[in-house]
Amino acid sequence: MKKAQRALISVSDKSGIVEFAKSLSELGIAILSTGGTAKLFEKEGIPVTEVSAHTGFPEMLDGRVKTLHPKIHAGLLARRDSPAHMKALREAGIEPIDLVVVNLYPFQATIADPDCRFENAVENIDIGGPSMLRAAAKNHAGVAVLVDPADYARVLDELRASGAVGEATRLELGFATARRDAEHALRLLRERLGAVGLASPAEAIHLEAATLVPLAGASQGLFGDARTEAEEWERLTERLQARLGGAQVHGLATHAEHRPERAWRAVAAGEKAGPADLPPGPRPLWLLEPPRRLDEADFVLLAGPERIEAGWWDGEDVVRDYFVAARGATLAWIYRAHEGWYLHGLFA
Fold first, then answer.
1. Is the bond into 290 cis (omega within 30 degrees of 0)?
2. Which residues contact 188 (CB under 8 A, 6 or more apart)?
3. How far apart are CA 325 and CA 338, in angstroms?
4. I need a labelling partner for 60 at 20 to 30 A (CA). Which of 99, 168, 313, 347 fits?
5. Cα 201 from chain centroid (whole Å)
């Protein structure tokens, strides 16, 4: 395959995009971009051409029309193995686009906001992005399409090795794009409708279809893979945010605090927080809230004590001696304070 010469990048998720674009530029690949992505590249000193300058047609209708232009879509859809297609591009003065990097407007985050108005939701329905994704996926024989920052590294590896993205990778990325686009729209619509209250009871639902599309089978490995598991977790997070609201869904991360009940913090869903510097010693997976009072005779002490004395600076100081203890097959984390013995956690 001919070496990649031109990439179109327009992303809402900027994760890793600056480093990726710098690497493309170093490989001699020209970059087209729009809006905030183009401004980011200019700020970082990355050579970039605005799509409006490339097409010779300015953005219009408050940005609703940016990339919907023959110079973009013909550059994506032209078959590289068709002399007629390539001749048509040359006669029209259109350059092929070999790489498309697009992720869509944050529609699910928008509709997850309980204060989101219908008009705002409508404005966050992406038109140009899905159009480019579908065009690139259809012509995956000549165009590589990326929607996930996790794919940047392997695409760069192939570009550095041969100057082009391999056929197998282009095929995989193209099919993943089509599936993800349809599933994303359907899932978010379903969850949003699920949270809408009806003004009156529904007595009947009538569905009518002119044609029935057969359901395609899906082949999966016996044990799955890490990437599939990550995608499933992302889908679950999006569903919960769409149903409950973005502020109600978050992740947990460790926090440098000696008091066990405060050694965690809430983080944005999906955020990868680095481990905090926590004190040494065994820590159970489950903590009781609040700790349960118990008799010393209830447990056999196995390890300890570990003194935790903290909180004097905020007026909620604690002085506790923690032990690993057992009662039958149960392994517990208990402590002794001035008031007596308490069960604070259970080891898995």
1. yes
2. 107, 108, 111, 238, 242
3. 19
4. 99
5. 37
pLDDT digit of tens for each residue in the chain (348 aa)? 678 888 888 887 787 888 888 888 888 888 888 877 888 888 888 888 888 778 777 776 766 676 777 888 888 888 887 888 888 888 888 888 888 888 765 555 555 566 666 666 556 565 666 777 777 777 777 888 888 888 888 888 888 888 888 777 777 677 656 555 555 555 555 655 665 666 777 777 777 777 777 766 666 665 556 556 666 777 777 777 777 777 778 888 877 788 888 887 788 777 766 665 666 677 887 888 888 888 766 788 888 788 888 888 888 888 889 999 887 778 888 898 888 888 888 886
Strand residues in the chain grouped as ranges (E):
6-11, 30-33, 49-50, 99-103, 144-146, 250-254, 264-268, 286-294, 300-310, 318-327, 330-337, 340-346
Q: What is the pTM of this model?
A: 0.48
CB 282 within 8 A of CB 332: no
Vertex 20 angle, CA 169 and 140, to 5°: 25
CA dist list (Å): 327 to 61, 260, 296, 302, 304: 71, 22, 11, 10, 16
> 186-199 burial by CB neighbour count: b if 16+ within 10 A, else e?
eebeebbeeeeeee
CA distances to 67, 83, 297 from 59, rounded to whole Å, are: 8, 32, 77
The residues with which 308 forms a beta bridge, in sequence order, are 320
Helix (H, G, I), strand (E, B) or coil at 21: helix
DSSP strand pairing (340-346 vs 286-294): antiparallel
Output phi, psi for 294, to 5 deg.
-150, 170
How many C-beta neighbours within 10 Å does residue 47 have? 12
